[in-house]
What we know:
Layout: E1 3-7, H1 12-28, E2 38-42, E3 45-50, H2 53-69, E4 77-78, E5 84-85, E6 91-97, H3 103-115, E7 120-125, E8 128-133, H4 136-147, E9 156-161
Antiparallel strand pairs: 1-8, 1-9, 2-3, 3-6, 4-6, 5-6, 7-8
Helix pairs in contact: 1-2
Amino acid sequence: xxxxxxxxxxxxxxxxxxxxxxxxxxxxxxxxxxxxxxxxxxxxxxxxxxxxxxxxxxxxxxxxxxxxxxxxxxxxxxxxxxxxxxxxxxxxxxxxxxxxxxxxxxxxxxxxxxxxxxxxxxxxxxxxxxxxxxxxxxxxxxxxxxxxxxxxxxxxxxxxxx
Length: 162
């Protein structure tokens, strides 16, 4: 029976490369001279430490620029956490790298496919979805339907098997 998986994974090595490029540019730019701004990654959390709010905005722009240069989608990064005060006048912002499909998003995708009355079965397997059906065309229609949903989080369609 043909099937494929819907996953949401990012290449963490490319994220590290983007952060390294960002650090190099911060060292060379004139407007960052004498500042104490840093960028570090620990697991799936990127911690940005800046001198003030405007500098934090510049660092966000740099992060977005370098991530897109490395051909990563900016949708993998969640900037929704509120910046917090650190020691002195410093500002700290934790940006999370989204990995896997959250349960509420998975249920939303399953419900949408079922409401479209497609001839496929969808199973939630941890942080990914397995879609199976009798015909290859049904699976391709399911992929087109999920792409048409315009979700915030980027998805990949892998392991297409006949």
